[in-house]
Amino acid sequence: GSECPMVQQHPRYVAAKKNVPVHFICYTHEPHSMQWYKTAEDSDDLYVLDRNTSHYSIERKDNFINFTIFRITYEDNGIYVCDRKNLTAEKKRPHLCGTELRVMGHSNIQQIQSRNTLKDAIIIIQSILLVIFISVPMLLFLDKVSDSISSSGDVPSFATGLEVEQMATYEDITPFRDVKAKWTVGEHPGEE
């Protein structure tokens, strides 16, 4: 069936760099009647992992089975499931409560630069679109307001009560006079 059996797998998802070890643990009351299986994500192939090799080891204890891959490679990508033995002989599929392993690679400088260039291009495009989507409605609104002012001749209701304040212009400013301070003529500023 597709339901999870009375086992607990830990962890449920692992993403690790190539050539590092990974450990999966299956907690069960019957570790000697259980075994590990591997299935690829895009395939129906089911691999039985039942004995130690130079690539991985299986260790059974009283209430768990420990599965360790010494140095993961890209071929180790897949879903690892702890289920009862002899599923392949019975032509059955393991349950769907497995652990997914993703092997991550090392990025080189060229890949990082191309990703950064792509991110920069996306940011620039987003900025341009943001300016367009903000400015176009504002321009349409201002055009509509100016049309309503020119057609009616009246000040729109939102502009009533606003007054233009008188401000001094450049011509209204008196020229600067060079006035000498009292103390420069002989008096001390502290004296009265």
Describe this structure in words.
The chain has 192 residues and is an alpha+beta fold. The protein has two domains: 8-104, Sandwich (Immunoglobulin-like), CATH 2.60.40.10; 107-149. Helices cover 23% and strands 25% of the residues. The chain has one helix and nine strands, in the order E-E-E-E-E-E-E-E-E-H. It has one helix spanning 109-152, and strands at 8-10, 13-17, 22-27, 34-39, 46-49, 56-60, 64-69, 78-84, 99-104. The strands form two sheets. Strands 2-9-8-4-5 form a five-stranded mixed β-sheet, with no helix packed on it. A four-stranded antiparallel β-sheet has the order 1-3-7-6, with no helix packed on it. A hairpin with a 3-residue loop joins strand 6 (56-60) and strand 7 (64-69). The relative contact order is 0.14.
Summed up, what is this model?
The chain crosses the membrane at residues 121-142. 23% of the residues lie in helices and 25% in strands. The protein contains 1 helix and 9 strands.
